[in-house]
Amino acid sequence: MENGGDLFLFLGRWHPLLVHLPIGILFISFVIALVARRPAYSGLAPAVPFTLFVGAISAVFASVLGFLLASFGGYDNRTLGFHQWFGIAVAVLSILVWWLYHRLAERRAGMRSLVKWRFSIFCMLMVLLCVTGHYGGTLTHGKGYLTDAMPPALGGLFGIEQVEEPFVIENVQEAAVYDGLIQPILARRCQSCHGATKQEGGLALHQQASLLTGGDGGAVIVPSELNESELYTRLTLPVGDEKRMPPKGRTPITPEEIALIGWWIEHGAPFEGLVADVEQPEEIATILAQLEAGNAKQAMPEAPPLDATAVQRLVERGIKVMPVAQGSNYVMISAINAPDFNDEDAEVLVDLKDNIVQLQLGRTAVTDVGMAHIGELTILKKLHLEHTLVTDEGLKALAACLQLQYLNLSSTAIGNTGMDYLKSLPELTHVYLYETKVTGDAIADIQQSQPTLVVDTGGYVLPTS
Fold this sequence. Notes:
With 465 residues, the protein is mostly helical. It folds into three domains: 2-157; 172-277, no CATH class; 299-456, Leucine-rich repeat, LRR (right-handed beta-alpha superhelix) (Alpha-Beta Horseshoe), CATH 3.80.10. The protein has 20 helices and seven strands. It has helices spanning 2-12, 15-18, 20-35, 47-70, 77-101, 103-107, 109-115, 118-141, 152-157, 177-189, 208-213, 230-235, 255-266, 282-292, 308-316, 343-348, 368-374, 392-395, 416-422, 440-449; strands spanning 320-323, 331-334, 356-360, 382-384, 406-408, 430-432, 454-456. The protein has a seven-stranded mixed β-sheet with strand order 1-2-3-4-5-6-7. Helix 3 packs antiparallel against helix 8 (118-141).
């Protein structure tokens, strides 16, 4: 059975090569049939049945090989299903079209009514062939392979709007620095050419081992040596340089993503640990905070101007005040570099209560006293309180924060009583409770009252192989 399986896999892997035969042959047959409709070129008509026969047989053969390849898995099931069934339909319809162009069909009285429609059916076959090819290309190259490179003017003509999904990380400081931050960037920008299925220049960037091995020219990253890392060099070449990556026609990498890759390499290219474990210059801290604030950029009324005095006081304490978007008066406040942020500092936040949509106070000295001030930030959407001294009593102050969507309480003294206070927050969608005193019964109770609430208790066990 094992040898049989190897044989079937070997045969199946001929599908991507041989599938081009029916495509080309059926297309040529269609062109001949189209031209032969004109009296001046009617002499070409006898070639149609023969080319259709060869195209139909090759379509059936390609379908069988495709079925063998699909049986070994590794593809997106939805896309594979469309490609598989459309491919079978092409094979069946091509046989029908061949028969309708065969002289025996023309001679049978019962078939003559259908023969009159054979060219229209042939046109349907061509449309089906294109659709099948589209799904095949999507399986091989990924979603958007064709439309991503389409010029905007052409996309507008066909009503295709090229909108890229924003890259947002729910809790950026607690994300794995490689798996949660760097690898997703490489997947978005590089792996269509340097991934599991396609490895230009012998380079694959989809896993740690291949990233460290490099490509035909050797290693592409040298930990802690930014200027010697070919990956970073290629990303920062001038626009128009033929060696710049990603190449022209592909979705360009953003300056922020380049900065994050450079920061990661410069700090030793770690594959383990969290984002918070790596030293963060101000530029990088700002970029990271904006990744987390991406889902806060929802349509909101225009915010009032920032209180310059309050902003200055916070900045002097080492606290970062960053707009959620260029030209916006909505801000995110991060005390990641100010672990001594305390209840007195929290009072200053009230002067910016109409501007703060995200507040990062994890690992600070804030207590329940400071929570009374935080509770006045009524447009707050995300709040980090992990590793603080906040208790259930402090959560009572959040009753007025009716827009709060995200709350991180990991490694705090929060218990079941605190969950009761959270039931009054209608927009709350994510709560993190790792290493708290909250019991399973309390979690079940709050999820019953708020069915859409996701409660993350952490403690994951990762596979070792």
